[in-house]
Design a protein that fits this description.
The chain is of the alpha+beta class. The protein contains 19 helices and 22 strands. The strands form 4 sheets. The chain has a 7-stranded mixed β-sheet with strand order 10-22-21-20-11-18-19, with helices on both faces. A 6-stranded antiparallel β-sheet has the order 2-1-3-9-4-7, with no helix packed on it. Strands 12-17-16-15-14-13 form a 6-stranded antiparallel β-sheet, with helices on both faces. The longest helix has 38 residues.
């Protein structure tokens, strides 16, 4: 989806103005709160005893004017939120002559709010850092002239100059110069990358030294930085089951609490008990039962986890996916480009008479060049002087190989299944060979090898340490090559020669057995299996970040980050479960004590504001 960046820019400016106004209001609110505390303290001095009630009233109005205004407004609208409950409690306590307690409700509640706001601001920092990766301007080069323009004026094919200290404004390829690029805001990697001619750079990185001239690959709306920012916004609005449950729970819970409090106030009239005592019990019940510790800390826990995970190089498309990530016990990997570097090499070439090595390599390369598989590059690297032949009637047969007419001959290049499909007999077939057939006769074969990623060894080991019980390799490659990689990495299961739908079937089999499954693979070729897994991870970034069916995009392209990301998700879910349990137990204890007339109002305030602060602090401090 192409965004209207003029409207987006205006929106950002409006948000900046609102942010400044909000800061001014916060400062005013803090000063008025301090005045409220001063009036409250003065009310206890004997010298002003006759003005005690007046001073307490001033303390309530100065420190809690926002709360009272919103609460009274909500009462008339029958909107029973936390502020409504607190307003009812403050006014009722004051009316019952509990002046100091009434003021304490306001002061402690407002103190809790300030502390919560502080904690919220800290949790937002990592998300805000991501949103800063977009550049506002770019240096466009026209002939020998450099002009600084708005980044949205840059088009595909333009030449841009990126100076020392500047952000990379759009995705581009280096055509001149060398520099070190800080990509930590994108990938979480602290070590800079060295950019030189021919290297593709993603927008959002920072040029640390030198000046580089680049050709634009994608405009601002389709560049990595813009798409990542869009995904972050989307993620913060994409709630999981726990968050949605808490939201629904609070909507039912709050009216129920008010109804019970009203019943408590009726009790003394029915049984002729002390009215004031039972009204105070009702107030304690109202204050202690506020669900804000749940409503605030649970979303904050997920929001904090999103920020921490983004710092580790992955963008997750919504907090709802964190739950699946945390629960997963099985992880499945694609092979090429995921566990391996994707850089294939020709290990062996066999050519049968009457064909020459040059012709066979030419036919192989000419077919492979038309596909998106890296075999063509491996053949080209094997013989740089290879020549290209004209191919007609080209077909790519998924999971089998390639077909084409070259020099009037029917040429097949693929695995044993392809040969069988075209009724070509072969004896003693090698499972890891890729055969070439010319006019129904085997003309030769190649055997390829590829390098395992250095970080894959550590990643597999650490995944087992964070609770992953089974690791599976799913690949379209032959079994011999797949087992070779699997044995190197000590992977539990290897399934080879799979078509895209076969991979989906393997994932679905795991899920039918009640397992949560993570799949890690290529964002394009593995779209079906990424979508069918409980948590799909796409490697790397590029033009199609937003359209990839994965739940998480591993921008860093470093699978060694996966165990730590899973660890953060598990940590977040532990914090969420603890906060829910802790909040409900404390509230239940205080409600029981209040119901029997033991709990004072200040304890009810702790059950609300104190517990909220502790749960928020738990989320901020313990999710890593």
């Amino acid at each position: 989806m192409i965004k209207d960046y003029d409207n987006e820019e205006r929106k950002v400016n409006d948000e900046n103005i609102e942010f400044s106004e909000e800061k001014r209001e916060q400062k005013l609110s803090i000063w008025l709160y301090i005045l409220g505390i001063i009036f409250f303290i003065l009310s206890f001095l004997p010298i002003v005893a006759e003005f005690k009630i007046d001073l307490i009233m001033l303390a309530i109005l100065f420190s809690g004017y926002e709360l009272l205004f919103n609460g009274i407004k909500n009462i008339f609208k029958l909107n029973f939120e936390e502020e409504t409950l607190m307003t009812i409690a403050v006014i009722s306590a004051f009316a019952l002559g509990e002046y100091a307690e009434s003021c304490m409700v306001i002061l402690l509640y407002r103190l809790g709010e300030f502390l919560e706001d502080r904690a919220n601001d800290r949790s937002n920092n990592s998300i805000k850092e991501i949103l800063k990766i977009k550049a506002d301007t770019a240096n466009r080069v026209i002939e020998n002239t450099v002009e600084t323009v708005n980044v949205k004026e840059i088009n595909v094919g333009d030449t841009i100059l990126i100076k020392t200290g500047e952000k990379i404004p759009v995705d581009c390829t280096v055509i001149y110069g060398e520099a070190e690029i800080d990509t930590s805001s994108l990938t979480g990697e602290s070590m800079p990358i060295f950019a030189k001619k021919g290297m593709e750079l993603l927008s959002g990185g920072i040029n640390l030294n030198g000046a580089i001239t680049c050709k634009v690959l994608r405009d601002v709306s389709h560049s990595a930085a813009s798409q990542i920012v869009d995904l972050v916004y989307e993620a913060t609005n994409n709630k999981g089951k726990t968050e949605n449950f808490i939201t629904k729970f609070s909507k039912v819970y709050t009216p129920t609490v008010i109804a019970i409090a009203i019943l408590i106030t009726i009790v003394p009239f029915i049984f002729k008990l002390n009215v004031k005592e039972w009204l105070i019990r009702a107030l304690i019940f109202l204050v202690a039962s506020c669900p804000c510790s749940l409503v605030i800390s649970i979303p904050l826990s997920f929001f904090t986890a999103l920020g921490k995970i983004s710092k580790k190089g992955m963008i997750i498309k919504g907090t709802k996916h964190i739950e699946n990530l945390a629960k997963a016990k099985v992880i499945a990997f694609d092979k090429t480009g995921t566990l391996t570097t994707g850089n294939m090499k020709v290990e062996k070439l066999e050519v049968y008479e009457p064909y020459s090595k040059d012709i066979i390599l030419s036919y192989m390369y000419s077919l492979e060049k038309l596909s998106n598989h890296p075999i063509g590059t491996a053949i080209k690297n094997y013989n740089e002087n290879i020549y290209e032949s004209q191919v007609s009637e080209y077909k790519e047969i998924a999971g089998h190989g390639l077909y084409g007419i070259i020099d009037g001959k029917e040429v097949l290049f693929g695995n044993e299944k392809l040969l069988k499909k075209y009724n070509i007999n072969i004896e003693n077939a090698l499972g890891n060979a890729i055969y070439i057939s010319i006019d129904k006769q085997i003309a030769g074969y190649i055997i390829l090898t590829e390098d395992v990623r250095n970080e894959a060894f550590k990643a597999i080991k650490k995944l087992k340490e964070v609770g992953i019980k089974e690791i599976t390799l799913l690949t379209g490659d032959n079994l011999k090559n797949a087992e070779k990689i699997g044995n190197k990495l000590q992977i539990n299961k290897v399934k080879a020669s799979l078509l895209p739908q076969d991979k989906v079937n393997v994932i679905n089999d795991y899920r039918k057995n009640g397992e949560k499954v993570i799949f890690v693979g290529d964002g394009i070729n593995d779209s079906p299996v990424l979508a069918s897994s409980d948590f799909g991870v796409a490697m790397g970034a590029g033009a199609n970040i937003a359209s990839i069916t994965a739940d998480g995009i591993l921008i860093s392209n470093n699978i060694e980050a996966l165990p730590n990301i899973i660890k953060t998700a598990k940590c977040a879910m532990r914090v969420v479960k603890f906060n829910i349990t802790f909040s409900l137990i404390i509230k239940l204890v205080v409600l029981i004590l209040g119901g029997v007339g033991i709990a004072p109002i200040w304890l009810a305030i702790f059950a609300d504001t104190g517990v909220t602060f502790l749960t928020v602090l738990n989320a901020i401090k313990n999710i890593k």
